[in-house]
Amino acid sequence: MSPLIMEEDDLVEHINRSLNEEEEFHFLRFEFLQRLNIVKLQLDLVRLKGRFQREKRASIQDLEALESTLQKYATAIRNYQFLKGKAALGKAETQRRRLLLQRYFQSRVKDQFHSHYCSFHDAEPRADPLRRALMRYMPSFLAFSSEEKMSRAREYSEGKAPQEVSVFVDRLTRFLVAITGGIFLVVPMIIMTLHQSTTKSLITVSVCIVLFALVMAFGVRVSNAETLISTATYAAVLMVFLGVNN
């Protein structure tokens, strides 16, 4: 049997195994090759720039070469940025992927599978920390949406975390945030009302503002401006209550 036929057989066997055993397909990012390609195009452009500046002229062929190289350069940067935006696999899963590829293709590619392994979903989490925590630790039948139960049936049956925020998780998060906001207002007011003391009230206000700021910074995904406005508004409400109470 020729090497080409053997390689085709290994390819088909590898893909069949992937379809039967894996819910998601993963790929190599080829960090070295991506950077090598970008730097090579950079050098080509630098040479063209130097030649134009020395000769103070550019022929039609030179301009065509410049246009083609610039297009390749921009495309290479976009491609690299796109791949960098995909979620990287953990160390254990990366090792398993590398060993799988070596198992099928090591005889033709000598130990060249050391690279970053990625999945197709974006690296940047779309959900805030609270939603991600609920998605990870809640039972699968509550965390998964109806659509994701059908599209990712294998991972749903295995109890893995979903990738999309279900309606239940979203509404539960909103309810928890609303309850937390009420607690942040009611608890300090009760503390300042019972056994009134200016020192105790000032300490209570200061501690609650710091805790509220921490929750806004790490528990809810909002912009810097929204975090500042929310914290300032909360502090103003407590200070108004403190002034009325005194």
TrEMBL record:
Record's signal peptide: none
InterPro entries with a match to the protein in the record: DUF6594
Keyword Membrane: yes
Superkingdom of the source species: Eukaryota
Annotated keywords: Membrane, Transmembrane, Transmembrane helix
Transmembrane stretches, start-end: 175-195, 201-220, 227-244
Domain DUF6594 residue range list: 24-239
Keyword Transit peptide: no
Name the record gives this protein: DUF6594 domain-containing protein
Organism: Penicillium vulpinum
